[in-house]
Amino acid sequence: MKTKEKKSKLVFNEKTYVLGQYAGNLAGLLFATPLMVFITFNSFGKGVGELFEVQAFVFLYIFCFVVIQCWGAVTNTRRDYLRKKWVMEATPQEGAPDRLLINPWRLILPLALIAGFITAAGAALIVPRLGQEPFHLLNINFMAGIPLFAVSSILIGIILPRDQAAFAAALPRTKIPAVPFRRYLLIEHILPWVLIQGIINFAVGLKQFTNEAQKLQGDIPIFTSALDAGIVTAIIVFFMWVSSQSQVRPDVHLGRVPEDKGKAPSVPLMLLLITSCLGFGAVVWGVLALVSGSFISPVPAAGLKAGVVMAAVILGCSLGVWWGRRSETAWIQENLSIPGVGQELSWGGIRRTGDY
Fold first, then answer.
1. Which of 41, 84, 85, 101 has CB atoms 3.0–4.6 Å from 166's, for a disulfide?
2. What is the C-alpha separation between 279 and 285, in angstroms, rounded?
């Protein structure tokens, strides 16, 4: 009787993995840029862009997404190292933990904010020299996407090698400073995403509701604003739930986040969570429709959208951190109980091997 041999998976070294992150960065932007351009200028516009709104879009999109793309590269790299999708060729040097490792935002922001602002401002200033208004969607894609890909790729090439070495060296240590949980949740999850998502959704909402008001030649119905808030709330809760898991799982391995030995979340619970997100969005929609007047002007509608999104970020991050801690703790405990594997795992000072 023939038995199927287990296929060996492809494992990269740290340098090859960074090249893969360049490709991942490009793939992500090839999806995100046309989507954001289409939503902003087609779904909420006339299919073209005037000079000022294109300049504003290019600036905000590049500035915010430089940070988002760098954050994604760092969290994906840490997670994939734990999954053994890449390995360090040289033995990590032991020593004092890199302070930048403590919080991935501290690693990213000093470079990303400065480089992102300079690139965004420069791109916005040269928009008038790249064509005549109204600007078509394809041109806007190039204006925003090319400089964003260039600067984010450069930053990834600078940030990732340092973080790879620091993270790999930190895992075997027995004493990584723990963070008070409430501070960890607020500073390293909720606060950064509240600012990013608030800025993006206020800007998109302002464009969206201004265009709607122009069509109606007056204020927009509160029903329109409330329905949008409900839909966006459900999307943001789900997105932040996924994102916070990616960040908290490596921190559990580092010992920075206390373990949670409760029952591991299951697939039915995941479906319940998704349904709850939709239900929460529907409740937001209904409440706003009831307590508000019949019509609302564009600026308050955009502010309302941003406020609801911030609340959704808090809920999504809290769920993601809880889910990630509990799932990762369950995985670690399960693998510690496997003969021949437990002594190779690293948690509280024992090195980890194996896959999720």
1. 101
2. 10
Dist CA 313 CA 318 (whole Å): 8
Which residues neighbour 113 within 8 Å (Cβ) at sequence distance 6 or greater?
67
Q: Rounded to an integer, what distance in angstroms lies between the CA atom of residue 74 and that of residue 71?
A: 5
Element (H, E) at 193: helix 191-216
Judgement on whether residues 153 and 54 belong to the same structural domain of the protein: yes
Q: Is 67 helix (H, G, I), strand (E, B) or coil?
A: helix
From CA 146, how far away is CA 130, in angstroms rounded?
13
- Please state, in angstroms and rounded to a whole number, the distance separating the CA atoms of residues 131 and 134: 9
Could you tell me if 188 and 267 lie in one domain?
yes
Tell me, yes or no, whether 4 lies in a domain: no
- Does residue 10 or residue 60 have the better pLDDT? 60
Structural contact between residues 330 and 264, judged by C-beta atoms closer than 8 angstroms? yes
pLDDT digits (tens, 9 = 90+) for 207-236: 988 888 888 888 888 777 777 877 888 889
Boundary (domain end) residue, out of 127, 144, 170 = 170
Beta-sheet pairing, 135-136 with 48-49: antiparallel
Its domain, for residue 49, covers 12-170
The DSSP bridge pattern shows strands 12-13 and 86-87 to be parallel
Q: Are residues 155 and 184 in the same domain?
A: no
State how far the Cα of 77 lies from the Cα of 18, in Å rounded to an integer: 9
Evaluate if pTM is beyond 0.85: no
Q: What is the C-alpha to C-alpha distance for residues 108 and 66, in angstroms, rounded to an integer?
A: 10
Q: Which long-range contacts (CB under 8 A, 24 or more apart) does 183-188 make?
A: 184/251, 184/256, 184/257, 184/321, 185/317, 185/318, 185/321, 187/103, 188/103, 188/104, 188/105, 188/247
Which pLDDT does position 151 carry in this prediction? 97
